[in-house]
Queue: 4 jobs
Job 1
Amino acid sequence: MSKLVVLNIVDGDFENGFPVFLEIATEGQYGFAEANGKLPPAPELLKQYKNWQLPYNSLVSNLRSSRIHVAGSTTSIPQIKTASRNLKCSLNDWLNSPQMQSISRTLYQNLNDKSEEIRVIIKTQNSDLQRLPWHLWDDFFQHYLRSEVALSLPVRRQKKIISREKPIILAVFGKREGVGNITEIKLNTDLELLKQHLSTDTDFTPLIEPELEDLYEEIERRPPNLFFFAGHSSSEENGTRGLIELNPDETITIGDLKPALREAVEEGLQLAIFNSCDGLGIARELADLHIPQIIVMREPVPDVVAQKFLQRFLEAFVGERSVNLAVRRARERIHHLEVKYPGVTWLPTVFQNPAEPSLTGNEFRRIATGVEPTQANPTTEASQPENQSQISWMPSVIPSSATPSGTIANPPPSQQPPPNQGFSRICCSQGHENSIANRFCIRCGEALEALSTVLPISNVPPPLPQPLSTEEVNQSHAIAPVGLGSILKGRYRIIRQLGRGGFGQTYLAEDIDRLSTLCVVKQLQLSFRELDHHYHIARRLFHTEAEVLEILGRDDRIPQLLAYFEENQEFYLIQEFIDGEDLSREITLGKQMSESYVIFLLRDVLEILEFVHKRGVIHRDIKPSNLIRRKQDSKLVLIDFGAVKQISNETFNSQEQSVAIGTPGYVPAEQANGEPQFSSDIYALGILCIQALTGVHPKKLSRDPSTNKISWRSQANVSPQLARILYKMVRYDFRQRYQSATEVLQDLQRSATQILSFETILPSPRGTKTIYPHRIWKLIAAFIALIVLAGLAFIIFAPKSSIPNQQLPTSEQEKK
């Protein structure tokens, strides 16, 4: 299910700040998380927007093919680029301010599935806030690649739409000449793009430079499901009204069309697109009409940008993406135009009704016609499963010939699909399934044109891999991937692929015998050239490695090994599925983490490595994506032990040299040469911590050629004590590093108080509550002092005994 995130900014201004209220919900359901925060005062932010807006408008207005005309002189592109960079930096600092930490923490704790679509709604009536490019919030939108921001329209539940034979699209093309100039804009390109992508199976009506009366009558006669306008437009200075140049003699406002458009909404108007300039005033006028989705350009737009955006938007929208993701995809695909028009990708702005889900091209066709998509449509999505036993990612084309048991019977030869046409789904490299018609992955945006991994049209799980002959093994060392939907060992059903590497494939699966509990399946690829000679060696090494993983899994910070087995001469490991997010979500490029964050990260990972190394195992691939912050308790879990090797005489006596594995940037020299040490893991962890402190990827760090010392200290605000520890962890010569995780932990413990006292601002890692040692000692000292003062006060001010001194025994008087 997709998620809805609403940031409600009720009141405030840039001089005093804005209170912010967050609500997170599953689309169509009640909210399940909320938080409060505040955007601090930022008067310079509005000024920086103006610093970009004015020269940008001046640049665009002087083009011969602009859809608006603004008075002003030409401006240099470098000046606009500088202004856009300054605005982006200030906006991110504003959104990441300490007053917003509660909102950020709530977002990251509750949005755990990157594959889900996330619709972010900014709910505000402040026109200056509506102009800001919210999509530049890198910490959020660069983590959640299937998220997009929209501005809020008034909430209203859509009425049931009247069924039609075909959805109606009304495209209006206004005046083609500018005011006082002969700058013609090429609206024919817009028309051809609409015909190319939307005219099939729709009732498409274009109107070119119509008179208001004709346009009004057309809307009343045949209310459209999609209203499109291209031409010259503008907003009045106060931004409350939008003007569109309908023809050479008529410039109208949205108010002139409101009665007709209001009736069109009741009849099923779903989407309005104004591919014209300065459309915020237009959107504000349309707001009270309750059109579910509106797309406008927030500033003047060059002709070429308007056309390229429309092309990319329609490609994604027709390819079954939602309006939100289609806008994001279009923005990303026109990013190359930023060279000529800095900030131009900020222009597309979506207004949406939060009560209505973001519309997709497929849903648009279904809603407009009032009928479900037919089975003959090869790009139709299958309905969502009611339980986990149904496979939601299986192909949508269901053959009509099914046996009584529910399995699909083989069609006769005359009905079988021709070669290369028997597929309805295609996978990207991340394992996401897509329609065969899609050009880009609907989950991660990867181009699909060059990919050839497709899923067969069948509801029957593909057959399990057959045993390989010696000849086949000799021809290829690669293992065949497990088919999605396959059931291994009679109980582990493959759901989707999680990754692949030199040691095999990794899949997410469900354990049918354990109430469909999720687990991870690793299909191992062991190196042996001749199956008949070395199969027994491969089997022994596999069982040895499984035994090691079983021992490691006894620690709750390492995934537990649930089972291991052979099937059809393939080797499989079944491990615990860790529900959480890896550290690549926290440690991102360009963002410097606090020193306290790094200290606690260092301590937690060292404790895991201490346990691992004492069992004679080197991990050899320490990196952010292999450390997961577990959702249930925020503890770090070290995963991906597919590359571990037991340190034993038996291993060293092998004739084969150790395989050099790992991730570039984190791999030390000795490991790259195939001779890993325990200190190799310590090196990788030190590099990870330096990356967190500097925000620089390890491959970008420079090294002194004479000393082989990594240069990073100038790029981070770090105490001398922690810098000394990290420098020793990443020494080029492994003999000069710490030789054990225990040794690093002891040194870190000795220096912890000095290191933490060095910091003035100590933000906690996302999802964790950090306790700082130096603050604990201060609290303890204050508590002891309070007890001492209370005791003294009691002694001084306590009431005297009511028994006279002379009546007490002598011994009691002495005691008193």
Job 2
Amino acid sequence: MHPTPLDPPSASRASLGPAGGGPASGGLERIRGQVVFDSAWFPLREHGSQGFSRMGSRRLVLTDHPAAYVHDTNVLGGATTVTALEPAVDPGATVELVEHSGRLVVDLRLPAGRAFAASTVAPLPTEALALLTGLRGALLADAASTSFVSPCAVSVTPLYEAEPTAAAPSAMEATPAVAAPRELTAYVVVRGGRLELRARGRALLDWPLNRIGVGPGGPSVAVVSGGAVLDGRFLTGVVLHLVTPQVLHAFLAAAGTGTVRADASDAPAAIGTSAPVSARGLAGDAEVTRVDCVLDDTALELQEHHSARVVARFDLFDSRLRVAGSAERFVVVDPEHGPVTVQSESAVFGRRLLEHPALRTAAERTLADGPYPAELADGRPVVCAVGPDALRVRGPGLELRLPFTALRAVEGTSQEQRAGLRVATGDAEVSIVGQLELVRAVHTDIVAGRHATAGPRAVPDMLRAAVGLEEDYFLYTIFGPFYELHAVLLGDGTAAELGRAVPQPTDDEARARTAATLAEGLVELQRHLDQVGSVLPAFVRHRDALLLEPVTGGAEPAWLKAQEGRLRAALTPVQRAAAETAQLAAQATRLLDLDPAALPRPNYTGTAVSLGVAALLNPVFLVSGATQAYSRYTQGEKRTAQLGAQSARGWATLLDRWNVLVSTTLPVLGYVLTENLFAPRWETARRMTSELRGAPVHTREAVLSAVAYRLARLDVLRRYPAGAGIRVGRGAVADHLRAARDTVATPRFVDF
């Protein structure tokens, strides 16, 4: 059965004449095709026309050729012209049924630069709608290759996951959200096992038929159930208003038989949220393939675009699942499939993947335990497994084993969002790229593996080396967030610029942006320093206890508990920085003369946020928003009027105090703090060495692994920034503080 089986009556093949039905004028005696709409019988209200007489009247005729004719009569001169568009093709000829497919709207781009847009005044009667089905979707150029196509663009009611009027701007949007439409108009197309909705040459939605449910919702209404993304909003389905019962019947027949499965015994595919993606690495193929990604509560499936055959299925609750990457692009692997790179074309669908709790759990497990899905520099997906003696890298067309004893280079690099790691032996080399957290984890495991090859006798030396690196750890852990915020205030400054003072803004827009950034950043720094004083000593003691666990069986030695008190006392200089930050924050609060709720918020959930970010070594000390604060700030005009001259002077004073804090106060505090910490941390290392020296033979490997990992983590962390979007490396912060300390002016002391 043809998708729109209702034929218009043969009497509709007629001459084109004036509205009264008299003989045709303008030189056109006959039209081509059968008439499916004539405005002589169903009047139109014009919305705009171009190239026609200003004082004339126009009559529109649509036929199934497909063709459109506009008969223009000039009431002053009596001249009559007929403009023909044949064949008529969408989107040059847009024919839509709106308001639950009851009223006609046309928008024609005609020859000779003419244009015509109009709509029927009232809903069309049943017989007129039946005649319009004679269009049979012929305005679409590929209508003949479809299993079903609606007669023209019909009304579609989106079923949103959330109330559309309550939609707020997403974190990625710099402008307010546009209200979600209650009704769309689109061609409904079934072809190749897929359901498409097309509007004016653009695909709005594209579902695989085996991932949706279809059923009648009324005499001419179909209800489609299935998750999808429409202009940045999630749908649970749509309602299709298909004009007549005959068209509905044809659609249900085409959609019901369009499901294709790999095997007749396969269980029905689950209905999930679907989106087209690009995948690489399917079945070991290094080529990029277009597939459908279907996410439901328990699984992530990739299926062929046209055959609907599932080519990879990942159980999200399988403890062996590993995933790493970002909302835009990630690599996934399990024992049966992968590694596979999945790149989403929809940022919104990418965030849905990112926010799936099971997928995030898998990502955190990946960072904690490995193996690590990543990519080569050329984009091929690989999985990196760090064993006790070598790094193994496997992917499409690649199988490498790089022994630790043969390594000649392990070099990490970082960019704003992704990082790279080059590992080389004398005769082999591999460079992997991925999210910062992932690359840092691989790097740490490799360095730890190399340290562990030295054997248990090297444990005391490794502990002493770790104490040497702890100076960097404490400097960047405590003071790093200050310099990350300083870099933002400098305009995304780098490590080389940390010694530069933030200049006074030169215009109202820059002043408003700096004020908002500093106000938000100071609040975050207060929270950070509160946790440094209350949590850091216990955190360090807990980490020390983990090193001793193979020897003590989990019982914490009394001397280690006493060391927490000494550590807390050694961190007392931090209170000076906390007091100054509190004063600056209070001053900023007094100057901020608008509702804080009206402030634009930093982008915490954008596509740059990587999977598994919560599994970092020390998430307590991350400054959640200061490093991203207002990088896309676009609302300065709304704040400029409220940042008056007196307020501007106050912000200038505040900025001067901030520059003094980071250039003078923090370097001195860093010096005092590291001097205070040296003795108790050295004593802790000495006592731990004594405890571990007497460890039973069966515990020595566990001890060796733990100490090697401690040393590797301290070594590797300083080589990278604290997180995605931060350009200042942690080691660079420590180096800057040491260098700045030597430049701080000090009083002259009498020699003795």
Job 3
Amino acid sequence: MGFSKTLAAVLASSAAISSVAAQEQQVLGGIEDAIHNVVDDVLQIPTEAKGLWDELSLLVPGFMDKAQDMIAQQKPKPHKRKPDSEWDHVVKGADIQSMWVDRDGVNQRKIDGSLEAYNLRAKKVDPSSSASTRSSSTVDTLMTRPTTSTCSTSRNDPKNDPVVLWLNGGPGCSSMMGLFMELGPSSVDSKLKLVYNDYSWNSNASVIFIDQPVNTGYSYSGGSVSSTVAASKDIYALLTLFFHNFPEYAEQPFHITGESYAGHYIPVFASEILSHKNRNINLKSIAIGNGLTDPKTQYAEYRPMACGDDGSHYGPILEESECQSMDNALPRCQSLIQGCYDSQSVWNCVPSAIYCNNALIGPFQRSGYNVYDIREKCKDPENLCYSQSAWIAQYLNQPEVMKALGAEVTGYESCNSELNRNFLFNGDWSKPFHLLVPDLLKQIPVLIYAGDADYICNWLGNKAWSEALVWNGKKDFNSAKMTDLTVDDKAYGQVKTSGNFTFMRIYEAGHMVPFNQPKGSLDFFNRWIGGEWKA
């Protein structure tokens, strides 16, 4: 999609722009209360924050007018809802709200959560059809805010293998990118044909790929979601209805994985699920790939990555003068992010994201190199630097594919720039969601993995925040030694683990580890869901 036309000259899309989809180099916009209130009210800046917003106006001439224009541009996504008769399964949240569940064979209880506003409709896709990715079915979770997802059943033992949720980032980028370019059963080639993937993550697991937040990919809504916390409510409802409708999967281990802005999503989604004592979601672990989770710590590692101090043979990319400018900007950047951490106010969080992205990501983007893989130039700027992104969009916009999958929107796009801007101006970007991880570690294993050629959510930053995290196993985790990850007697990365916390560096891989290291990624994924690294 390229840069946003409004702020392109100055702002860089930061780490979270999603996995392939993360490949999107765009700018963010929209303001928290603007999603719910009148624009004029939103732009009444508190006195204590006025100085920061005045700085933005100097940094980006006409910023306030442009922000207001972005908010005003929000429109419902064109769609045509199909009648329930066209679906194989229809489940209404209101009908199961008071139902009893019996997961452990001892205690019967009601499912927690408000599900009245949510419905699920599902259909099965013929494996021989052009829309199939082999052993796949499509689940369309149509709620007050409809969300679409595709489930690729395990090639091995669907009745017993784990169930995995995969999330691309953005925010606002479709997980169909992960499905058709990274880890799904098939990829899409230049001729829009499906190519079998020998290293699909559904080799030993059933994998759900979901378009979320609403208005991402095939999903649509008359309203909007502009924060990770709000999105977590939809995800909890979706999974609750999914496992109710497909109880054969509800007893199997369930894992959440994803990339990029999923570094925000996953800690919040997992915390939301675990907050419900009476649930039908058997969450066993989470895994975050090249994620944005602790911005204050991670932004400090952009300069080393761009300037050849990352301990690899990839750099340097930037000139010394640019590296010095990044050094000069870092203290201000981290001070602004700390202000966001302390207040979690939109008025502090928005300026921190814009200033830091401009100062620490902008120089690299302007170099012409691919922010998702520093080993190469951005070959296709209009398509997230990867031609595969265009092929996937063309494939998913074919009428026969849309009909087979039950799509109700008029067209598919890999990333929704308006949604992306809404999250930024809602202050979501710089928030400290890493603070949720210590409590998660008390309950489930957590994996942080990163391809070491990625810039935008680089491995240095992910290792740094993992080691900076304050939890009861910090000392042992930090002193743990990195050991080789090997497949076929060849090292493809390194791993260190202690208690329920694991970190991996994956060699010769960019932002999309399964795309660059298919065999290695399947190896560590199978070992992870098999329980090799846990307390």
Job 4
Amino acid sequence: MGGNERTVSPSSPDSIDTSNETSKPHDWRESYVSATLIGLAIGVLLCVLNVLVLFRTGTSFGGSALVAALGAALLRVTGALSWQALFVVFSIASSGYVATAALDTGIGAVVLDGGDLPAWGILVLLAMASNAVGIGLGGLVARTLVVAESLPYPTLKPAITLMASLSTRAGQEGNRLGRTLPVAAAVGAACALGVALWGHEATPELFGSGTHVALALSPLLYGVGFLIGPRACAWLAVGSAYTVVVWFLQDRSSAQPADYTAHLSYPWVLAAGVGLILGYSLAAIARVRGPLLRALRGDFANRLIGGHARWWAVAALVVLALFAALYPPVLRYLGFGVLGLALLVVVTVFLTRAGGEIGLVPLAPALYFSVVVFAVAGADSATAVLVASTICCAAIAAVYFTYSAKVVHDRPETLTEPPRRLTGWTQLVGGLAGAAIGVLVIAVLTRAGVIGGGAFPAPVATAVRFVDATVRGSSDYPATVALAMAITGPLGVGLAFTSAMPTMIGLGVLLPPAYSLTLAAGGLTQWLLTRRNPGRRSATEIVASGLIIGEGLITVAVLVVREVLR
């Protein structure tokens, strides 16, 4: 990840001389106030657009590179541009625009099903609380993923590169970046615009209808394949081959072909993919248990469990036991609470590891799996969907905390590490603001009665309803899910001690085959370009970053123009 980083020249007019920071407290505070306001503005704007676009098209957009470019432009206008200020913008905005991720889908699914929603004030507090919990969980796992395991975070690399280059004076490497990156971004943007105008996101199926073998017409996915490398792409293709075979057998056994939602909700796809990644994650945590235990045994943890806190915990358990004895139904809700905590850990580990290894966060599989678990446990439909989506919302907040931690870890070499509390408070500020505004937008759409209509058909919420109904309508489904997890979980643990990459196999199982195969094509291309000339690796990574940036910017623009402003 460090090959394209730029270092900050102390004489650069757009950078902060860290040796003199303490001698200029007024300027330091001014730049951070500007950065905070800019980060809030970008985060809230993208959060609103994500909610509207999700209910309209079923997709949402990331925007790490977009946030870096837009934040740098606005900071330059205010005269406050520096890497430190740009990091504040990035951290606040990135947590803000995903603050209602998954929870918006859950609310939409309950609305479509005609269920009763809690009061909107409670939903705002629920969104805020899930973001706060997710940030706390992100703080626990970030050091393990970013430092101990050094996961690559491939889709984050373009933003890291932009933040370093836009906030520093260009040198030899910067000049090379300045020549290659815009050209590659223009190519990616042109390709993405052409695909949008054509109206087809993938090639026809390569081996005939029903084979599900196609390539996505996506410069972004092709570029990510360069960044995650040929070995990871090869294992991704293995998982994709499995899912193609299962999909083909599904089609053969039913009266009509299964769409992607029906395919993904099949236990031997959903539970198998999640089981592989979860099993590997548990084994990986066991391997780095030393650093993790040291983090958990820090001063904060000692204060938390020491002194009077432990007696308060014992008292709370006693009171809970008394309530359970007097009111047996409490045991049911206690069981749901324990199940929710366990699932929160599982989903957080699942999504943070996927985000770190491949950069694509498979939110739909995590949400479907969470709904399945609560439906199997006997929760009513509205409760299952809302609790599952809240858990996934917290897990997404944890993912973006690790993203900010990765940006800090890969900062320019001349800068000292920002205090850890800076990442925490910037993530919290962005998450709370995005949660409040995002839920407000959902409330407006709900009260207007447009969710599920022609303007906002809410396809993802409809898919969640389908998964919930599928589980409740089949007596065999829970047993098949348990069997798939019982086989693939230990398999993931075992593969962790081999040269295989279980996370990539599991993601290949869960992602649409066109996505996985396009990623694999990118990895194969990089291998062909660099196998005889390893020195080309840096150039190929710059080109890949440009392709990702180009499609990302065009995707946001097209979605806004076509689906929101139309």
